């Protein structure tokens, strides 16, 4: 067993969470309260999810409903991170466009069986990856458009369509959202040993099989994230995903 869930486990978690919040507070980064809340939420949510997965794992309708719930939470989280305006729900498009085609392909080819023990973690990884790049690409693109608003207007004055002028300004910043995933894939096995690989090893799989599963996850995740960033950029350029005011 990798960890023993006891009082020591809880105490160490509390100390690490307090340390993170304290460092952020001392550095005046403005996120100390969010770190404490995020840690507490993670503990409650993981405890609840552990119980729910054991309940839905034998029922296909409940299993699919749980995946849709994961998607809905990701949409709400990403949308509200990008904008507080009414357009936040457009975050549903990049996450769906990235995740569902890849997940459907994996299910149809049989690489991922339609069983909770496989579907939930794979769907969670893909949805989580799409959530991350959607937030990063959306925020960076909108920030760039605000800072370089004059360049957008200059482009339109030269005859570019609104969409094309915004794309010229926002494309580079939005593309930076792909860098964490690219760096993780480039350095896998050399700098990091990601969760799927470690989990397979701890579950008794051979190192070769664990490596194959991790490669499959990383490549699938890159496909999901590439589509999500492209869709976010298009939505921002067309003014669908915006910051009101």
UniProtKB/TrEMBL annotation:
Keywords: Membrane, Transmembrane, Transmembrane helix
Bilayer-spanning residue ranges: 42-75, 87-111, 117-138, 188-209, 215-237
Similarity field: Belongs to the UPF0014 family.
Name assigned to this protein: ABC transporter permease
Record membrane topology: Multi-pass membrane protein
Record-linked PANTHER family: PROTEIN ALUMINUM SENSITIVE 3, UPF0014 INNER MEMBRANE PROTEIN YBBM-RELATED
Signal peptide range: none
Subcellular compartments: Membrane
InterPro entries: UPF0014_fam
């Amino acid at each position: 067993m990798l960890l023993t869930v006891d009082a020591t486990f809880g105490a160490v978690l509390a100390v690490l969470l307090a340390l993170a919040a304290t460092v952020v507070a001392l550095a005046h980064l403005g996120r100390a309260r969010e770190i404490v809340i995020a840690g507490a939420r993670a503990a409650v949510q993981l405890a609840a999810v552990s119980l729910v997965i054991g309940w839905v794992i034998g029922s296909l309708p409940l299993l699919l409903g749980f995946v849709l719930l994961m998607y809905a939470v990701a949409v709400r989280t990403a949308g509200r991170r990008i904008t507080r305006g009414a357009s936040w729900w457009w975050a549903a498009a990049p996450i769906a466009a990235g995740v569902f085609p890849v997940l459907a392909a994996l299910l149809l080819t049989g690489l991922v069986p339609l069983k909770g023990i496989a579907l939930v973690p794979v769907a969670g990884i893909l949805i989580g990856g799409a959530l991350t790049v959607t937030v990063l690409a959306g925020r960076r693109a909108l920030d760039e458009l605000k800072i370089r608003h004059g360049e957008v207007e200059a482009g339109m004055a030269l005859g570019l369509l609104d969409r094309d002028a915004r794309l010229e300004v926002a494309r580079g910043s939005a593309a930076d959202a792909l860098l964490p995933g690219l760096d993780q894939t480039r350095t896998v096995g050399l700098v990091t040993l990601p969760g799927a690989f470690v989990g397979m090893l701890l579950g008794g799989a051979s190192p070769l099989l664990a490596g194959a599963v991790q490669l499959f996850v990383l490549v699938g995740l890159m496909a999901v994230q590439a589509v999500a960033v492209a869709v976010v950029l298009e939505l921002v350029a067309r003014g669908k995903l915006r910051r009101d005011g």
